[in-house]
Amino acid sequence: MQVADELFGKVEEALNSIRPYLETDGGNVKIIDISPDLDVKLELLGACGTCPMSTMTLKAGVEEAIRKVVPEIRSVEAINITQPDDPNAKLPDNMQ
Q: 3-7, 10-14, 48-52: which has the highest mean pLDDT?
């Protein structure tokens, strides 16, 4: 269990490095699970949860930050990713 706690802490550390940028746009991210196979499941919160750019944010920002700190992570997935063509997708107020 200690290895899992250490891994969780490292992923959290990586997320803390990008949280200020997410929070600027009214968003955030939360770790849902880290599997034994080193797959990370996240939930995009706030504006990130409905933003049409969430796929890009996940891949270019969140996943990159995690892999930089924890290179052994196999994959990073958001459980609530918003597709750009989603009619309910909405840019954060400061991006409109």
A: 10-14
Q: Which residues pair with 93 in a beta bridge?
A: none
Q: Report d(CA 33, CA 30) in Å as an integer.
A: 9
Compute the distance between CA of residue 5 and CA of residue 84 in angstroms, rounded to an integer.
35
How far, in Å, CA of 7 to CA of 5, rounded? 5
What are the structural domain ranges in the chain?
2-91
Side chain identity, residue 18: I
- The residues pairing with 67 across neighbouring beta strands, listed in sequence order, are none
Amino acid at 65: A
Whole-model pTM above 0.85?
Answer: no
Class of domain 2-91: alpha beta
The average pLDDT across 55-75 equals: 90
